[in-house]
Amino acid sequence: MPSPAGAAICHGMEAPPTGIPIALEPLVTRVLAPNASAYTYTGTQTHIVGTTDLAIIDPGPANDAHHAALLAIVDGRPVRAIVITHHHRDHSPGAPRLAQELGAPIVGAAPFALEDDGPRSDASFDHDYAPDRVLAEGETLTGDGWTLEAIATPGHTSNHLAFALPETKALFSGDHVMGWATSVVSPPDGDMTAYMASLEKLIGRDDRIYYPGHGEAIEKPQRLVRGLLGHRKQREGQIRRLLAAGTGAIPAMVEKMYVGVDPRLYPAAERSVLAHLLDLERRGLVHRDGETWA
């Protein structure tokens, strides 16, 4: 899911064809799901890794047409695993049907378990997500000529994983880094402190290209990740200046920070601002009194 500013640019665009396999490189094929929206851009991109045996990364929503397209691409080849980056409804619900029909395990992100009494941000969560195997940092899946290594990248969600393909130095970045907008970080499951740390972690890697869940491939990933870090620091600076000027309520901050953005996207923007404030609070830079921050 993108930030509200990013989501706004999707309105009025025509999505590219769905269900068509596009070879990104010899080991990677991409197919677009028919779920374009203000929060998914042109739709969720499923990536298929391998040639003689396969892994399917993020099968997308439970959609008959997308399911049929994936089966056609598999074309009887063995599928080693259905791999999930995180538990949002545009990424994981297509997994159980594929797993049953292909005899493949669901592998990747941990199951979702949010235990809190605060505001819930789980409207977009796949509550039926139940992996057969959870991958921890550095654990791998292997096939004929390919390896997928789990890279823990929490922040957008608490269980988010990226997957490195060391044979070609590619990274499947899920929603942590996208090719069209920044991700929403929505507490309590989303965590800005973790998100920033995960971006810093990627800066320390030497991946050649990112294949995101939404948007085009990212051919200069280090430059983009540095830009994402800079963008978040700019947002933090805006928030601190507004607080210093006496604007302490999140809705009032959003109105001043997201000028020109569709007001229907304000709730998502408020979650992002809250994530920044919680990060600042952990660092001892702000405090709150009820719904007001200072």
TrEMBL record:
Residues 42-214 form the Metallo-beta-lactamase domain. Signal peptide: none annotated. InterPro entries: LACTB2_WH, Metallo-B-lactamas, RibonucZ/Hydroxyglut_hydro, Sec-metab_biosynth-thioest, WH-like_DNA-bd_sf. This is Hydroxyacylglutathione hydrolase. Its EC number is 3.1.2.6. GO terms for molecular function: hydroxyacylglutathione hydrolase activity. It comes from Sphingomonas mucosissima. CDD domains: metallo-hydrolase-like_MBL-fold (cd16278). Keywords: Hydrolase. The keyword Hydrolase applies.
